[in-house]
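Postdoc handover notes: sequence design on the structure in folder B. Input C-alpha cells:
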C-alpha cells in the first residue's frame, strides 16, 4: 500500500495537467475559457480559489428556451454545461440528467454527467455512467480518458487507468484526447521509474 501511495504522489504532478485538460475539454467551445482555472483547480484546494462566475444571462436564455420547448434535450445539456463551467456540479447533474431522459443516446452528455458525478464524490456512479456512454460508442475517446482518470484518482487503480488511456492512444493517437492519454501514460511510467530507482526505506 505504501508503494502505491508513492506512485500516486509522483504521478500527481502529471495528472494535474491532465485533469485540467479534462475539465476544459468536456465541450469544444469551452476549451480555451476553462483551461486555466481547471489546471489550477487540480493543484489547489477548493477553499483557496473562487470558482468561475455563473453566466446568469445564458442561464435565463436557456431556461426560457426550456420553458417554451419542454422536450428540448439540447437546451438542457447546454444549461448543464453553463453550470459545469461554473463548477456548480449538482446543478449541472440536474440538467444533464434531464437531457438524458429526453435523449438517452448522447454519449457526450452522458460523459459530462459522469464527470459531474465524480466531482461530487460519486465515483461509482461516475464509472457506471461512463459505461453507459461506452455502450453508446465504444470508441468514445473522451469517455475513455475520463474513465481512466476516475479509475486513477477515485479507485487508486493505475493499472486499470492505464488500460483505458492505451485504448485512447490506439483509437485516436493524434487527437487532443490521445495526446492527453499519452502524457498520462508517460506520467505513470515516470512514477514507476522513480519509485524503482528511489531510496529504500
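Designed sequence:
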Amino acid at each position: 500500500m505504501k508503494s502505491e501511495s508513492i506512485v500516486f504522489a509522483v504521478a500527481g504532478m502529471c495528472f494535474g495537467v491532465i485533469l485540467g485538460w479534462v475539465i476544459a475539454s468536456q465541450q469544444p467551445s469551452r476549451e480555451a475559457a476553462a483551461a486555466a482555472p481547471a489546471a489550477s483547480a487540480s493543484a489547489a484546494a477548493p477553499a483557496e480559489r473562487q470558482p468561475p462566475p455563473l453566466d446568469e444571462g445564458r442561464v435565463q436564455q436557456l431556461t426560457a428556451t426550456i420553458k417554451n420547448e419542454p422536450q428540448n434535450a439540447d437546451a438542457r445539456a447546454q444549461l448543464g454545461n453553463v453550470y459545469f463551467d461554473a463548477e456548480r456540479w449538482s446543478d449541472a447533474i440536474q440538467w444533464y440528467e434531464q437531457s438524458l431522459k429526453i435523449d438517452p443516446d448522447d454519449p457526450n452528455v452522458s460523459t459530462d454527467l459522469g464527470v459531474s458525478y465524480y466531482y461530487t464524490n460519486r465515483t461509482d456512479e461516475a464509472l457506471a455512467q461512463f459505461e453507459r456512454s461506452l455502450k453508446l460508442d465504444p470508441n468514445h475517446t473522451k469517455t475513455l480518458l475520463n474513465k481512466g482518470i476516475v479509475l486513477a484518482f477515485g479507485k487508486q487503480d493505475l493499472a486499470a487507468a492505464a488500460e483505458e488511456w492505451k485504448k485512447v492512444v490506439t483509437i485516436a493517437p493524434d487527437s487532443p484526447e490521445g495526446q492527453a492519454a499519452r502524457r498520462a501514460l508517460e506520467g505513470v511510467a515516470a512514477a514507476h521509474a522513480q519509485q524503482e530507482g528511489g531510496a529504500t526505506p
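Context for whoever picks this up: The chain has ten helices and no strands. Don't rerun without checking with the PI first.
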